[in-house]
User: Fold these one by one.
Assistant:
Number 1:
Amino acid sequence: MRDPRIDEYARLLVDRSVGVQRGWQVQVRATPLARPLVEAVIEQIARCGAYPLLQMSFELIGGPFAREAPLDVLRTPAPLQRRIWEEADAFIAIWAPENSREGSDLSEERKAALQQATAPMRERTMSMSAPWVIAEYPVLAGAQDAGMTLTEYEQFIFDSVLLDWDAQGERMRKIADVFDDGDEIRIVGTGTDLTVSLAGRRGAVDDGHVNMPGGEVFYSPVEDSAEGVVEFSEFPAVYYGREVVGARFEFEAGRIVDASAQAGQEFLRKTLDTDEGARRLGELGIGCNPGIQRYMKNVAFDEKIDGTVHLAVGNSYTFTGGKNISSIHWDIVKDLRTNGALYVDGRLVQQNGDWRI
Amino acid sequence: MRDPRIDEYARLLVDRSVGVQRGWQVQVRATPLARPLVEAVIEQIARCGAYPLLQMSFELIGGPFAREAPLDVLRTPAPLQRRIWEEADAFIAIWAPENSREGSDLSEERKAALQQATAPMRERTMSMSAPWVIAEYPVLAGAQDAGMTLTEYEQFIFDSVLLDWDAQGERMRKIADVFDDGDEIRIVGTGTDLTVSLAGRRGAVDDGHVNMPGGEVFYSPVEDSAEGVVEFSEFPAVYYGREVVGARFEFEAGRIVDASAQAGQEFLRKTLDTDEGARRLGELGIGCNPGIQRYMKNVAFDEKIDGTVHLAVGNSYTFTGGKNISSIHWDIVKDLRTNGALYVDGRLVQQNGDWRI
């Protein structure tokens, strides 16, 4: 018999996250490592009278085709693959890598070609023209990065995923209402005093739809509004496997005018120089998942730690009103559980990670 | 580094069996157990500037969708899957089951529904409107059925697959020429004296295209011609996991008028009563693979043992001129290496498995 938590997870993905309907064709992407969840998801889709289109590969990024195909072939998706992206009714991606460093052997040219090939899929999902979800599955590679045994990591994943998402949604909606109604947000913490404007912007509540685990309220801040200083002294900022320790940004009129770090400063500055939009904020997110308490070096979890906020430099989501354009989107988490405070239009709404609303 | 025999196998499948061309979309079906060959095949397809469409599943027959989907859904393929079958330029199926008994838990109703759903694929491949190959990969389940260790079984597979197929093709063509030119074939062996007519029929040579291992010359005998007795005393006849020991058929005017067996007689007779065509011959095949010497309880190999013939009761291939229609096609192998002889129009062409041509 299968671990009943796997069946609960599968029902959550199929019924809530994408809401599979009879007759739908649902692309299911995974690695073979996620077998129990893949089988449970397929069962659940079958019970809905819908079709799973299972696309398993050993590597989620990279692999023999990415290494060997001529660049012009790599850049253009196979027509039949493109059609799946264009016509599938929903997308479930189960994240279960064998090695979190996979794909790191690809040249920049090949990475760019792959990005270009998969653009039709991103267009479909980012525009929300089909329901989709990316779901974390507990594998050894993830446990290792998190500094846990697999058993601990499994417990962690299930604790952060198997929540009453209606109740979590209500709780997050209340938080979003406070920020929706406010204009100026002030973030205070260790080495940090930053204000950003959310005037005219509305938040999105991640209540178990596009991400599993979900659990954040997120905004696109007004692009020229950030003023002050933020210091990410609690956790390293991680981007494409590179770590930056003690990153510190000074903002003027929305733009980072000074960036420094205790380690990885050169990589940090180079990344901020990627393009014009890379020095502006693309996101302010508020972590709200009560099952996530520990930093894991995996931004999909870390940005949801209850009592943290995260700022992304770079591209913003248009569906939350964002206008910043960049080829990067780097989420960096700021812990407010010690010496932290959040103000909305001057009113204290969170102190040391505890809500006052 | 990968076993170099795997790379040789992959080149054989991609270059010879289906002849991949630049820009092609090639469906690759496999289980994760075949990983080394799957990766080598994808590499080889990529090097041709073509696209692999990898469709891996844990089970080749059955699985959670087959068990759980409503019958009407199971019966109708997903439109996107159907398009892959209709539009892919070539098909490579790598046979690597976890368990050779998989799918045996499905009801007859579900098996029939699956057959119906996959009919568009069979129409495409059986009409030869796209190149395809089914390739055996050495897995534990196969080794176990063959009574070998995995290491022995790997050696066996590579010995039967990594042949000079041009040379094998020439050798088989010479054999086919003798039978093409002849009318009456007489098969003599232990408990056996059977004549069949191949008048007007031409043989097909399996020289490393649709099957890997290949190695047979096969015909559709004239449907009302078989006269005499055949006794399959050397090897059991195996069909869908059921074994019949010592099967014996008496033919009159092409039809089996008496069928008996030392074990499994009831199953044998029931199967022959499936439909009208089930009591007539759908195939006469001549095993020609010099790498296959041992009976393996796997008809994909056994029918190619050098020095054997096989008779199939049931449906015949139209591309070899066959007209017999049945929902069964049961290949049964007769060993001629002891007390055996083959005659074409009265001329001895093979004795005790050795060719005299």
Number 2:
Amino acid sequence: MSDPHIVSVGLSPIGSTDLTGRDLFTAAMTEAFDGVPDPAEIVDAVYVGNQSERYEHQILYGTILAEWCGLRFTPAERVEACAAAGALALRHAVRDVRTGTHDAVLACGIEKMTAGGSALATESLSAAFDRPLEQRSGVTAPSQYALLAQRYLHETDATEADLARIAVKNHENAAANPRAHFGEEIDVETVLGSEYVARPLKLFDCAPISDGAAAVLVASEEVASAVGSRATSVRVAGSGAATNNIGVADRNLTVIEGAHVATERAYDGAGIDPEDVDVAEVHDAFTISEALLAEAAGFAPRGRGFESSRPPAERSDGWTNVRLSTSGGLKARGHPIGATGLAQAVEAYEQLTGRAGDRQVPGADTALLINEGGVADAATVAHVLTVGGT
Amino acid sequence: MSDPHIVSVGLSPIGSTDLTGRDLFTAAMTEAFDGVPDPAEIVDAVYVGNQSERYEHQILYGTILAEWCGLRFTPAERVEACAAAGALALRHAVRDVRTGTHDAVLACGIEKMTAGGSALATESLSAAFDRPLEQRSGVTAPSQYALLAQRYLHETDATEADLARIAVKNHENAAANPRAHFGEEIDVETVLGSEYVARPLKLFDCAPISDGAAAVLVASEEVASAVGSRATSVRVAGSGAATNNIGVADRNLTVIEGAHVATERAYDGAGIDPEDVDVAEVHDAFTISEALLAEAAGFAPRGRGFESSRPPAERSDGWTNVRLSTSGGLKARGHPIGATGLAQAVEAYEQLTGRAGDRQVPGADTALLINEGGVADAATVAHVLTVGGT
């Protein structure tokens, strides 16, 4: 048994690119392996998060990436729970190291979403909805999340402008992130004036369709030490996962219970409370998601998660001081499905090691990641990362 | 840390059916949970092997099956390495129990291959080939395996009739398996007289396109005891996995090195040698596969694996007494891709617990399973199962 550490990370540019999935991965892997002596010598297993074979007509991505890294005969596989695939890969790497199964494991994620335009992406993502009950009604991701948003606006004091402010905040963060999909700040009027996709969600309430790849090397403390990165490595202190009913109609629309369960499991593993978290990357596929997940994670009182865009001092009583989606989040950093959970880990690694540049939250030493698959919490994987102490 | 035991198994009918994937799974789950008190109370996690979202336009199968079993909030996910997906699910379950991560885990596999006819199955399986180098040349699974077979017939004394005898033996075994895809025996003339699919492989050298689902409940000795099945439970003594280069052109065609590595890892874990194995389910997607895997597993001397259809006494020196593909194998029991690795485990469970009916190999107490993904050993997962002893 060994504490799992993230010893190095890599992230491709995120956005609409001409690169193939493997080219995107090359960018991430090259960065992750930079300064790691003999990666092929130390990596014992590979997990790849990838949502859909449709974009590139390619399965067996575990095998392909192991070979691409020069890791012949290394166990490698793909894991999938729609957009939670990336964090699943991380979770496997963390467990393998924690249990002593392996000393160093590469978790990576890839999605080449723009290969067939938005029509293919919409079609492909619809496979995450229950086929007999949901798909046949022609629902899309925005139309399902719009149900959550409608109900939330009905139950709480939140307005469409409040949701818009979440988008504005995340675009502002992304503008300080050189690898974000969107590099320009926006204002509330831009969001409110954009077209409705599924009322009350407008174009600027929605995360984009992005290409991207991410790689995270997880290792035991001994290996972390040996590769010389121990001083800057981040400990994965807790990991939690949970599913919820596949159908939105079979869930509470405004209390994201599965995400709450997964997050509690991660907190319990780490022995921390929500108040201890300095920065959090939550699964803001839509602005409403950030509001709901701030509550599910215990950062905000019920019905006040929509204040996530405000500076801590201006939030309601009961809110913690956490900063959300410092990377720009799915909303503006971008959302390359299978890579998203690992892109979250890259941001946390950079924040906790003081490398987040203009996005840096001073003194951040504990991060929470929430990565979801399907509509909201059909599948959720949460992680707690820390530096110092232990 | 606890020895992982298979405490119960379930298998749907295998073949061309009108059932959906979920209906097939219901058949497998109902059998696996029969006699298990409160499965929802004891199952801590679910892994689902599934090759393609194309057949049913459905991803997130982990979430769906967890809900289908009444396991709300239980961690669940899909794993994929093409046709090795089922054994990957088993491998995760085994590791979770062995490491003490969970006490009981459900490993299951589903494939609804006939949903779009053989055209969709061929198209879908082609995603397992390297896109830039292999797919663009229009290869299919039979055409790639034919390269292995051509070379094997060139290098060894084997003939097309020898390969045909493997098919005959596996159909004979399937005829004694009530859930096999094919229930009728065939003769060598049937195989040799069937159409060439890709020379030298003929129609009857090839496994069929099958629907099917399988479920295997893996638990600690304590849970096995508690559910009353300890007396008949089977211990998973070893598990090994390996990848090999994705492209057939980048591998040895007649020495299946990745499968050899994975199998050695499973033997090492179990502390056994090939001679100790009584029954083996190998990944006979084509007759040539059984010959090659008999050699990779150390059952046969190099170049003599084609004798797998013969009774042990009539095989060349250096062969062990193992019986191969007693279920009928992929060739005749059927090959529902994501479920195949677990269907292999079901056969081993039945053989080792004396429930294999007319297929029973007397005194069998050790089994080897080899499940492959892609062409031959692009991904291999091997397991050793035992009863008695420790």
